[in-house]
TrEMBL record:
The keyword Methyltransferase does not apply. It comes from the Bacteria. GO terms for molecular function: cyclic-guanylate-specific phosphodiesterase activity; DNA binding. PANTHER family: CYCLIC DI-GMP PHOSPHODIESTERASE PDEF, SIGNALING PROTEIN YKOW. Residues 536-600 form the HTH luxR-type domain. GO terms for biological process: phosphorelay signal transduction system; regulation of DNA-templated transcription. InterPro entries: CheY-like_superfamily, Cyclic-di-GMP_PDE-like, EAL_dom, EAL_sf, Sig_transdc_resp-reg_C-effctor, Sig_transdc_resp-reg_receiver, Tscrpt_reg_LuxR_C, WH-like_DNA-bd_sf. Keywords: DNA-binding. This is Diguanylate phosphodiesterase. Residues 154-403 form the EAL domain. Residues 21-141 form the Response regulatory domain. Gene3D superfamilies: 3.40.50.2300, EAL domain, Winged helix-like DNA-binding domain superfamily/Winged helix DNA-binding domain.
Length: 600
């Protein structure tokens, strides 16, 4: 038995529930009433129930429905025919199949809906409940929001792509990967985005096909590798990094370029993994094999991405220097209730274990799936349940948290990144040299203009900006006060004594009164940085051990539910600890908590 849920716009539905129309096509009166009661419980309304296909088709012809449930076993016309002929041509976006019967029919129906180009297709299994249904609706909401952000009235042109490269529109986000057993943060995958001046942030599925058609994938790979290794190199500790590569790039003499970029950015070769899809691994050439051999010789690892979706034979795969396989999210989605997906995943895991390589599960989006895969013995988890793709400054705070937890070090990471912007280039260069001599564990970057500041804040985990009162006017062009708050950055502002009173009330600004010599100014800058860190430690040390544990996870951006599971407490207890922490540190929200503790 299969039901279908189709949603036009979940966000609109929730905001305008009185305009919401639902059609349930179900011959089983008990099932239809149960479904209706669950929908009412989650604030859905305007529900119509029909008991046969004829009435259903009549309703579909006369009315618009935001949600439709359809039983496949309607006697006169089956639900598959309704899906195929009477629904898919309507302005409906999302399909959720609810199955309690034949898995082959469920899968075929699922594939048919995908072929009909519904924007969302997923499975919901019987016996269903409010939690399962809400999880599906949340996933649809997230995907609809992403689609809304990425649906561009005018598609990107080749001119846009050229400008993206030449004008630095391309930036990176990083999705964390966690050890299923220990919970340790093991690595990150770097993912490219384009920040278009009109359309905003654009996902890879929009721009990658255009870049491929233009033959610029090699340029994108070089850019991503350089940006990622440069940014992660400022962390002050090793960060394992995965980057996608294609077979066409591996047809070039790429090895020396990769090694040179890693060397330039002080990034260890052994911390780099290149991800190649299974289909592309199948198409081997002498040049590709030579590159893979040289990369292996230099301790750079190879991962087979989207495992199980390509055409490679086991014989071909085991002859490659593979360090890990990544099971495609197609097999992970719905695995808890799908026997075939379970068996495919078990086979992949058995292969990985037999070859002594890591097994990564992609697309883990809920607790049930996480728990199933953990029990199964998968090594590494990657997905929205444990961590969405993060900008660089949020990733650094997440790493700080896990390093401190693992090694029992202070909350503040030893490495700090400073951005200097002084309008006088000679003064800025002199200040950089003096600070570099004194702050040997710090990363120091200079910016020559406001565009450079914007890109540096986007691409690097900046803790402090150093500027002076003569340069501050130029910062107004980039709305600098907002950027300080958004990126949790402190501004050390060199000012004359008479100017000090005018900036004391501005958040995130530390005034440094000039002394007359650059050497004395540097001493004051260093004093203020270290002073802020000492104050931070005192505030944090005033918390109990349990409060500190909750604080760390709150700073890292985890929900109360996730924190409760990690600390083996209930959600009410976590809420109590959260209120207590906010009160002790004299902050009003977790956002302010992050600003107090998360940016150092």
């Amino acid at each position: 038995m299969i039901h279908v849920l189709i949603i036009d716009s979940l966000t609109t539905i929730k905001k305008s529930k009185h305009a919401m129309n639902i059609l349930i096509i179900e011959s089983d009166i008990f099932q239809s009433k149960k479904l209706k009661s669950i929908l009412l419980e989650i604030n859905m309304c305007e529900i119509i129930i029909v008991n046969n296909a004829v009435l259903a088709i009549k309703e579909l012809q006369q009315n618009h429905f935001d949600l439709i449930f359809c039983n496949i076993d309607i006697t006169d016309i089956d639900g598959i025919t309704i899906l195929f002929k009477f629904i898919h041509n309507k302005e409906l976006q999302n399909v959720v199949l609810i199955s309690s019967g034949n898995e082959n029919i469920s899968q075929l129906t699922y594939d048919m809906c995908n072929q009909l180009n519904y924007k969302h297709v997923s499975m919901l299994y019987k016996p269903f409940d409010i939690t399962s249904l809400e999880r599906i609706l949340c996933r649809i909401t997230k995907e609809n929001n992403e689609l809304h952000l990425n649906e561009i009235d005018k598609p990107l042109s080749s001119i846009d792509i050229i400008r993206a490269f030449s004008e630095n529109w391309i930036f990176l986000v990083y999705q964390p990967q966690f050890d299923f057993r220990s919970g340790d943060l093991l690595a990150v995958e770097a993912l490219a985005r384009i920040r278009h001046p009109i359309y905003g942030d654009i996902e890879p599925k929009v721009f990658i096909p255009i870049i491929e058609d233009m033959g610029l994938m090699s340029h994108l790979f070089h850019l991503v590798l350089d940006k990622a290794t440069s940014a992660l190199g400022t962390f002050g500790f090793n960060v394992k990094l995965s980057i996608n590569i294609t077979k066409n790039i591996l047809q070039e003499e790429i090895c020396d370029l990769i090694l040179n970029i890693c060397r330039k950015n002080n990034f260890a070769n052994s911390d780099l993994t290149l991800e190649l899809t299974e289909e592309q691994a199948y198409r081997r050439t002498p040049t590709l094999l030579a590159n893979l051999a040289r990369l292996e010789l230099n301790n750079i690892k190879l991962s087979i991405d989207d495992f199980g979706t390509g055409y490679a034979s086991l014989d071909q795969l085991i002859n490659l220097p593979v360090a890990e396989i990544k099971i495609d999210k197609k097999f992970i989605s719905g695995i808890c209730h799908d026997y075939k997906r379970q068996q495919m995943t078990k086979l992949s895991l058995f292969l990985a274990q037999s070859l002594g390589i890591n097994c990564v599960a992609e697309g883990v989006e809920d607790k049930e799936t996480w728990e199933y895969l953990r029990e199964l013995g998968i090594d590494v988890c990657q997905g929205y349940y444990t961590g969405k793709p993060l900008p660089i400054h949020e990733l650094k705070e997440l790493y700080n948290l896990f390093i401190e937890t693992k090694k029992n070090q202070p909350l503040i990471c030893k490495n700090t990144t400073i951005l200097i912007f002084i309008d006088n280039s000679l003064s800025m260069s002199a200040l950089e040299r003096l600070l570099s001599k004194e702050l040997t564990d710090y990363s120091i970057i200079t910016a020559s203009n406001t565009d450079s500041i914007n890109y540096t804040l986007r691409d690097y985990p900046i803790n402090y900006i150093i500027s002076d009162s003569l340069s501050i006017d130029k910062l107004k062009d980039i709305n600098w006060e907002s950027k300080l708050n958004d990126n949790n950055v402190s501004l050390l502002l060199l000012v004359e004594k008479d100017d000090n009173h005018s900036i004391k009330t501005i958040n995130n600004i530390i005034p440094v009164i000039k002394s007359g010599t650059l050497q004395e100014d540097v001493k004051k800058i260093i004093y203020n940085i270290k002073k802020s860190k000492i104050s931070l430690n005192l505030e944090y040390d005033s918390l109990s051990k349990q409060e500190q544990a909750v604080t760390k996870l709150l700073i890292a951006g985890f929900t109360n539910k996730y924190i409760a599971r990690e600390l083996d407490l209930n959600e009410k207890t976590i809420s109590t600890y959260k209120k207590r922490v906010l009160n002790k540190l004299n902050v009003k929200s977790t956002v302010e908590l992050y600003q107090v503790l998360g940016n150092n």
